[in-house]
Amino acid sequence: MSTIDSSPPPAAGQRGPLEHDVRDQIVTAAEAHFSRFGYGKTTVADLAKAIGFSKAYIYKFFDSKQAIGQAICVQCLDKVLAAGEAGIADGRTASEKLRRFFNGIVATSAELFFQDKLLYDIAAHSAEERWPSALAYLERSEALLKEIILLGRETGEFERKTPIDEVCEAILLVMQSFMNPLMLRHNLDDLPDAPTKAINLVLRSLAP
Amino acid sequence: MSTIDSSPPPAAGQRGPLEHDVRDQIVTAAEAHFSRFGYGKTTVADLAKAIGFSKAYIYKFFDSKQAIGQAICVQCLDKVLAAGEAGIADGRTASEKLRRFFNGIVATSAELFFQDKLLYDIAAHSAEERWPSALAYLERSEALLKEIILLGRETGEFERKTPIDEVCEAILLVMQSFMNPLMLRHNLDDLPDAPTKAINLVLRSLAP
């Protein structure tokens, strides 16, 4: 047996968690900085100066300002999806799951993205520039929606004639007015009535 | 009989048409000026200077810059509605009328508001600030939509259980992603497929 081991020495074992801590520290500081000066107007140099790190040190953890923005975005979108998933768990029937899924998503999006100008700013960049974090969120939403529709088809609550992908795509198109922060922005005055009316229409479209 | 007549003298009879001509001249010049410099950034003083009129003379015809913007907006929205109405006339069944109504509106909106940055700029102000021209357009759209739904209920194409106003409101909510220039802007890459999918969903929701 060789004493030279390919596994990292104990000290280096700290690297992962330590890196994780610094990443979190940068994200938290960036969040505070963006919220004062806006995401669009801040450069990595501004950020480094504000945090007290060197620009080079920040680049060790994040490739770009967008990568930091994405980390903030992922945190938010995870909360939005968690609210949608909680809605699915709470609903007894497929119809109720669908309704609560969207209610959870819309309410949490409105709360996160519009109570805090900062987060809207980042979410708008994310949606406009189709960041991977935004695309992953859409994919996950579509997957959850598909599960609900399939369940409703199984239980006989929903029609089965229309191809499932067409149904899911169309529902997401309808709900994007209230899910996409760039569009939700124009609908804030009409919450929660407008999305409820839209979901009612969607449920009528699913009737067998 | 008195020779003093309260009706305007023949020369003044020209006032209406003459005023109309000057108004048109201001609107045309404003359109050209806005298209170069943007609606938001232009003041009535800039406009007066560019057209070669005094500011006071422009104010004889329009109360404000917004009133000029509205005149341009009304022209555009009339074209959009005309395309929708042509769609209604072309469709044989209520379903076809509904489909062609929205296709006409969406295609003409995309053409008018996005081939020309100027018109988008004004349309965005109009939608964001809820100008009377935008509200009148929405009311007219809703009235046309209601006629189609009532027809479809009469012919037995559409369900009759849901209150008609709820149906119309919900359909307009769904279609706003493609009708409201502020939202259509984010959907241009997905024309004409996305609105077609949305209309298909709407038609499924109307099934008896």
Automatic annotation (TrEMBL), chains A, B:
Q: Which UniProt keywords apply?
A: DNA-binding, Transcription, Transcription regulation
Where is the HTH tetR-type domain positioned along the sequence? 20-80
Q: Output this protein's name.
A: AcrR family transcriptional regulator
Give the signal peptide as a residue range, or say none if absent. none
Which Pfam families does this chain map to?
TetR_C_27, TetR_N
Gene3D superfamilies, alphabetized? Tetracycline Repressor, domain 2 (1.10.357.10)
Q: Which PANTHER family match?
A: HTH-TYPE TRANSCRIPTIONAL REGULATOR BETI (PTHR30055:SF234), HTH-TYPE TRANSCRIPTIONAL REGULATOR RUTR (PTHR30055)
Which part of the chain engages DNA, per the record? 43-62
InterPro entries to which the protein is assigned, alphabetical: Homeodomain-like_sf, HTH-type_TetR-like_transc_reg, HTH_TetR, Tet_transcr_reg_TetR-rel_C_sf, TetR_C_27
Q: Which domain of life is it from?
A: Bacteria
